């Protein structure tokens, strides 16, 4: 009854066009859902990026970079429709979009994540100044939604972003990675207080582009004894 009342007062709005979603029970308009480019085969077996040649196993980035994470999963290609939606979610307090995003993560990869059986889900952290500016970490909202849906623990503070990074666009791959490696630290207290040894982690982020952020976090986790790191993101871009 409470949910019915809430739906009447605050009807579900489409995360793409922001109109009230019809029929009730859905979280996106049918026409808007058709605009989204869901990643299908052929895709990179390492990072999930779409590839044009079916005979290839890996995208050009994964062929040339020795990524330390085991495997990654993404739902959509990062195009104009989803780009606007995520920007609203990330910068304009549209936290309700996360319900649709989480629903799609579970629908596409829930079974696979359960088979992987990660010890914990860990969101990519943002710097405190950004947190104070926005009031939330979008990756943390996604991680908590995913953890609740799959009954997996979420350690939001296992990784901490303790330094603002320089603009990434003008940097080489090595400079980007170095820039980011200096920005994160591992929270040993959180790890030690967890009820069991952490060996397998699923990182959560909104967008995967060059992979530098995920790789920096992966290296830090491996340095602290965590052997298997996977990631899931809403979108994957073309990289640079």
What integer value in Å does the Rg equal? 18 Å
CATH architecture of the largest domain: 3-Layer(aba) Sandwich
Largest beta sheet: strand ordering: 1-6-5-2
- Enumerate how many helices there are, as a single number: 10
- Describe the sheet with the most strands: 4 strands, parallel
Which percent band covers the strand fraction?
5-15%
Task: Give the overall form.
Answer: globular
The helix/strand series, from N terminus to C terminus, equals HHHEHHEHHEHEHEHE
How would you name the oligomeric state of the polypeptide chains in this document?
A: single chain
The total beta strand count reads 6
Description:
It is a single chain. This protein is an alpha/beta fold and 240 residues long. It folds into 2 domains: 1-33, no CATH class; 36-236, Rossmann fold, CATH 3.40.50. It has helices spanning 2-9, 30-35, 60-64, 80-91, 97-116, 128-134, 138-150, 173-181, 188-193, 212-223, and strands at residues 71-77, 120-123, 159-161, 184-186, 200-208, 228-236. Strand 5 (200-208), helix 10 and strand 6 (228-236) form a beta-alpha-beta unit. Helix 8 (173-181) crosses helix 10. The radius of gyration is 18 Å and the shape is globular. The protein starts with a helix and ends with a strand. The mean pLDDT is 91.
């Amino acid at each position: 009854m409470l949910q019915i009342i809430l739906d009447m007062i605050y009807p579900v709005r489409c995360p793409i066009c922001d109109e009230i979603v019809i029929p009730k029970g859905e979280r996106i308009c049918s026409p808007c859902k058709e605009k989204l480019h869901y990643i299908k085969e052929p895709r990179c077996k390492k990072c999930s990026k779409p590839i044009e040649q079916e005979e290839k196993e890996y995208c050009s980035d994964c062929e040339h970079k020795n990524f330390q994470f085991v495997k990654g999963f993404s739902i959509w290609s990062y195009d104009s429709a989803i780009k606007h939606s995520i920007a609203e979610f990330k910068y304009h307090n549209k936290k309700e979009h996360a319900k649709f995003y989480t629903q799609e993560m579970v629908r596409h990869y829930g079974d696979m994540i359960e088979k992987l059986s990660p010890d914990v889900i860990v969101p990519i952290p943002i710097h405190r100044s950004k947190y104070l500016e926005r009031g939330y970490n979008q990756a943390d909202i996604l991680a908590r939604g995913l953890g609740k849906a799959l009954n997996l623990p979420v350690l939001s503070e296992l990784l901490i972003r303790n330094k603002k990074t320089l603009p990434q666009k003008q940097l080489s791959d090595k400079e980007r990675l170095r820039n980011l490696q200096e920005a994160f630290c591992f929270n040993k207290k959180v790890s030690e207080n967890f009820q069991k040894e952490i060996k397998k982690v699923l990182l959560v982020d909104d967008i995967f582009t060059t992979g530098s952020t995920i790789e920096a976090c992966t290296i830090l986790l491996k340095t602290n004894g965590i052997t298997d790191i996977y990631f899931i993101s809403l979108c994957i871009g073309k990289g640079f």
